[in-house]
Amino acid sequence: MAKILHIFRAPKKRLPMEELEEVRVIRNSGLEGCAHARPGGNRQVLLVDRETLEAMDLQPGVIRENITTDGINVNSLALGQELRIGEIVLKVSAVCHPCDQLEKVRPGLRREMRGRRGMLCRVIQGGMIRRGDAIEKVMMARALPFEEDSRRGGLAAK
Protein backbone atom coordinates (compact mmCIF):
# COMPACT_ATOMS: atom_id res chain seq x y z
CA MET A 1 0.00 0.00 0.00
CA ALA A 2 1.29 3.44 -0.94
CA LYS A 3 1.64 5.95 1.88
CA ILE A 4 3.12 9.27 3.02
CA LEU A 5 6.63 8.74 4.36
CA HIS A 6 7.53 12.42 5.04
CA ILE A 7 5.83 15.83 4.88
CA PHE A 8 7.83 19.03 4.36
CA ARG A 9 7.09 22.73 3.97
CA ALA A 10 9.25 25.78 3.38
CA PRO A 11 8.61 28.41 6.06
CA LYS A 12 10.33 30.93 3.74
CA LYS A 13 11.69 30.65 0.22
CA ARG A 14 15.27 29.38 -0.03
CA LEU A 15 15.37 28.39 3.67
CA PRO A 16 15.63 24.71 4.67
CA MET A 17 12.41 22.73 4.60
CA GLU A 18 10.84 21.79 7.93
CA GLU A 19 9.54 18.27 8.48
CA LEU A 20 6.05 17.87 9.89
CA GLU A 21 4.03 14.99 11.32
CA GLU A 22 0.81 16.54 10.01
CA VAL A 23 -0.34 19.65 8.18
CA ARG A 24 -3.50 21.28 6.87
CA VAL A 25 -3.61 21.44 3.09
CA ILE A 26 -5.58 24.36 1.68
CA ARG A 27 -7.84 23.82 -1.35
CA ASN A 28 -6.44 25.42 -4.52
CA SER A 29 -3.33 26.66 -2.67
CA GLY A 30 -1.02 24.12 -1.00
CA LEU A 31 0.36 23.32 2.44
CA GLU A 32 -0.63 25.80 5.14
CA GLY A 33 2.36 27.96 6.06
CA CYS A 34 4.43 26.95 3.02
CA ALA A 35 6.13 29.76 1.14
CA HIS A 36 5.70 27.78 -2.09
CA ALA A 37 1.90 27.46 -1.87
CA ARG A 38 0.51 28.95 -5.07
CA PRO A 39 -3.18 29.90 -4.96
CA GLY A 40 -4.77 29.20 -8.34
CA GLY A 41 -1.62 27.67 -9.83
CA ASN A 42 -0.64 24.20 -11.02
CA ARG A 43 2.43 24.01 -8.74
CA GLN A 44 0.81 23.68 -5.31
CA VAL A 45 2.24 20.41 -3.94
CA LEU A 46 5.35 18.50 -5.06
CA LEU A 47 5.40 14.69 -4.72
CA VAL A 48 8.62 12.65 -4.89
CA ASP A 49 8.93 8.92 -4.19
CA ARG A 50 11.32 7.34 -1.69
CA GLU A 51 12.47 4.85 -4.29
CA THR A 52 13.83 7.62 -6.55
CA LEU A 53 15.55 9.36 -3.63
CA GLU A 54 17.24 6.15 -2.51
CA ALA A 55 18.37 5.30 -6.06
CA MET A 56 20.00 8.74 -6.25
CA ASP A 57 21.43 8.61 -2.70
CA LEU A 58 19.38 11.62 -1.54
CA GLN A 59 17.78 12.26 1.84
CA PRO A 60 14.03 13.01 2.01
CA GLY A 61 13.35 16.76 1.83
CA VAL A 62 16.70 17.70 0.35
CA ILE A 63 15.20 18.33 -3.10
CA ARG A 64 12.41 20.38 -1.52
CA GLU A 65 9.46 18.07 -2.07
CA ASN A 66 6.35 18.56 0.05
CA ILE A 67 5.46 14.89 0.28
CA THR A 68 7.83 11.93 0.09
CA THR A 69 5.84 8.85 -0.89
CA ASP A 70 6.49 5.15 -0.35
CA GLY A 71 5.14 2.41 -2.58
CA ILE A 72 4.02 4.46 -5.59
CA ASN A 73 6.03 5.42 -8.66
CA VAL A 74 5.31 9.15 -8.69
CA ASN A 75 7.09 9.76 -11.99
CA SER A 76 4.76 7.37 -13.81
CA LEU A 77 1.55 9.12 -12.68
CA ALA A 78 -0.55 10.43 -15.57
CA LEU A 79 -1.39 14.11 -15.82
CA GLY A 80 -4.92 14.52 -14.51
CA GLN A 81 -4.66 11.53 -12.15
CA GLU A 82 -6.35 12.25 -8.83
CA LEU A 83 -4.95 10.96 -5.54
CA ARG A 84 -6.74 10.68 -2.21
CA ILE A 85 -4.32 11.19 0.69
CA GLY A 86 -5.80 11.40 4.17
CA GLU A 87 -8.59 13.99 3.95
CA ILE A 88 -7.34 15.62 0.75
CA VAL A 89 -7.55 15.04 -2.99
CA LEU A 90 -4.69 16.11 -5.27
CA LYS A 91 -4.73 16.25 -9.08
CA VAL A 92 -1.45 15.66 -10.90
CA SER A 93 -1.00 18.84 -12.95
CA ALA A 94 2.58 18.92 -14.27
CA VAL A 95 5.93 17.19 -14.43
CA CYS A 96 8.40 18.98 -12.16
CA HIS A 97 11.41 19.88 -14.27
CA PRO A 98 14.78 20.06 -12.49
CA CYS A 99 15.98 23.60 -11.73
CA ASP A 100 19.33 25.18 -10.89
CA GLN A 101 18.61 24.92 -7.14
CA LEU A 102 19.46 21.20 -7.37
CA GLU A 103 23.08 22.10 -8.17
CA LYS A 104 23.39 23.43 -4.59
CA VAL A 105 22.57 19.94 -3.31
CA ARG A 106 25.11 18.18 -5.53
CA PRO A 107 26.89 19.28 -8.70
CA GLY A 108 25.33 17.53 -11.69
CA LEU A 109 22.10 16.72 -9.84
CA ARG A 110 19.96 18.80 -12.19
CA ARG A 111 21.01 16.60 -15.10
CA GLU A 112 20.65 13.39 -13.03
CA MET A 113 17.08 14.30 -12.03
CA ARG A 114 15.71 14.71 -15.57
CA GLY A 115 12.54 12.66 -15.75
CA ARG A 116 12.77 11.78 -12.05
CA ARG A 117 12.08 15.11 -10.28
CA GLY A 118 8.54 14.21 -9.23
CA MET A 119 5.09 15.51 -10.05
CA LEU A 120 3.36 18.77 -9.23
CA CYS A 121 -0.24 18.70 -8.07
CA ARG A 122 -3.19 21.00 -7.52
CA VAL A 123 -5.24 20.69 -4.33
CA ILE A 124 -8.80 19.73 -5.34
CA GLN A 125 -10.05 19.06 -1.80
CA GLY A 126 -8.33 20.42 1.30
CA GLY A 127 -8.02 18.92 4.78
CA MET A 128 -5.43 17.32 7.04
CA ILE A 129 -2.68 14.89 6.05
CA ARG A 130 -0.49 12.93 8.41
CA ARG A 131 2.68 10.92 8.08
CA GLY A 132 1.65 7.33 7.28
CA ASP A 133 -1.62 8.26 5.53
CA ALA A 134 -2.53 5.96 2.65
CA ILE A 135 -2.25 7.24 -0.92
CA GLU A 136 -4.96 5.96 -3.25
CA LYS A 137 -5.43 6.56 -6.96
CA VAL A 138 -8.94 7.87 -7.62
CA MET A 139 -10.56 6.34 -10.69
CA MET A 140 -10.45 8.80 -13.52
CA ALA A 141 -13.75 9.45 -15.30
CA ARG A 142 -13.73 8.39 -18.91
CA ALA A 143 -15.83 9.87 -21.68
CA LEU A 144 -17.93 7.21 -23.37
CA PRO A 145 -17.90 7.32 -27.18
CA PHE A 146 -21.18 8.09 -28.93
CA GLU A 147 -22.67 4.95 -30.41
CA GLU A 148 -24.40 6.88 -33.14
CA ASP A 149 -23.58 10.14 -34.83
CA SER A 150 -26.61 12.44 -34.83
CA ARG A 151 -25.66 13.68 -38.35
CA ARG A 152 -26.14 10.17 -39.76
CA GLY A 153 -29.65 9.46 -38.58
CA GLY A 154 -28.89 8.79 -34.96
CA LEU A 155 -30.60 10.42 -32.03
CA ALA A 156 -30.98 14.11 -32.66
CA ALA A 157 -30.50 16.72 -29.97
CA LYS A 158 -33.68 18.58 -29.14
Q: What is the strand and helix layout of this fold?
A:
Blueprint lengths: L2 E7 L8 E3 L1 E5 L3 E2 L13 E5 H6 L11 E4 L11 E4 L2 E8 L6 H4 L3 H4 L6 E7 L1 E4 L4 E4 L20
Parallel strand pairs: 5-6
Antiparallel strand pairs: 1-2, 1-6, 3-4, 3-10, 5-9, 7-8, 7-11, 8-9
Walkthrough of the structure:
- By secondary structure, this protein is mainly beta.
- The protein has a single domain, classed as M1 Pyruvate Kinase, Domain 3, CATH 2.40.33.
- Helix content is 9%, strand content 34%.
- It has 3 helices and 11 strands, in the order βββββαβββααβββ.
- The strands form 2 sheets. It has an 8-stranded mixed sheet. A 3-stranded antiparallel sheet has the order 4-3-10, with no helix packed on it.
- β1 (3-9) and β2 (18-20) form a beta hairpin.
Main sheet record = 8 strands, mixed
Query: What is the CATH top level name?
Result: Mainly Beta
- How would you name the CATH homologous superfamily? PK beta-barrel domain-like
Structural class: mainly beta
